[in-house]
Amino acid sequence: MRPPGVHLREITDDNRDAVRALRVRRDQKQFVASVSKSLKQAAQHPEANPWYRAVYLGDEPVGFVMLSWKPPAGPYEGRHFIWRLLVDKRHQRRGIGRETLTQIAALVRADGATELLTSYDPGDGEPWPFYRKFGFEPTGDIDDGEIVLRLTFPAR
């Protein structure tokens, strides 16, 4: 099921407050930082080459995604890494996260990548089942206590 109208938009002065107001469920807070914290981390770590967008359903912001887009150095040098993905608690379980991942994977693949990476903090309620269903597999690496996952794109 693809929710119609899910698309990515740049964060501007016009939508920043609405995007910052997005919240995950209480039991998910240990796994995903807020939009405000994410934007702060992006500003503090320009070397990670942060790329972020608001996720919209029609004209309503419903989520946020942030990647480290081919950073010039570090453990993910030249690779695409999902640094943050969240869907507001009022809009979960509707396919929005999956559709966002589908769009991100298409953008990354169009950029010439053969894989998309992410990581998660293991624990009760962890996002691993969501990523596994999408096709991510563990790389065997651990980064700062988080399990690193890879989505491999088939050869064109």
UniProtKB/TrEMBL annotation:
<keyword id="KW-0808">Transferase</keyword>
<dbReference type="InterPro" id="IPR016181">
    <property type="entry name" value="Acyl_CoA_acyltransferase"/>
</dbReference>
<feature type="domain" description="N-acetyltransferase">
    <location>
        <begin position="6"/>
        <end position="154"/>
    </location>
</feature>
<dbReference type="InterPro" id="IPR000182">
    <property type="entry name" value="GNAT_dom"/>
</dbReference>
<protein>
    <submittedName>
        <fullName>GNAT family N-acetyltransferase</fullName>
        <ecNumber>2.3.-.-</ecNumber>
    </submittedName>
</protein>
<dbReference type="Pfam" id="PF00583">
    <property type="entry name" value="Acetyltransf_1"/>
</dbReference>
<keyword id="KW-0012">Acyltransferase</keyword>
<dbReference type="InterPro" id="IPR027455">
    <property type="entry name" value="Sper_AcTfrase_N"/>
</dbReference>
<dbReference type="GO" id="GO:0016746">
    <property type="term" value="F:acyltransferase activity"/>
</dbReference>
<dbReference type="InterPro" id="IPR050832">
    <property type="entry name" value="Bact_Acetyltransf"/>
</dbReference>
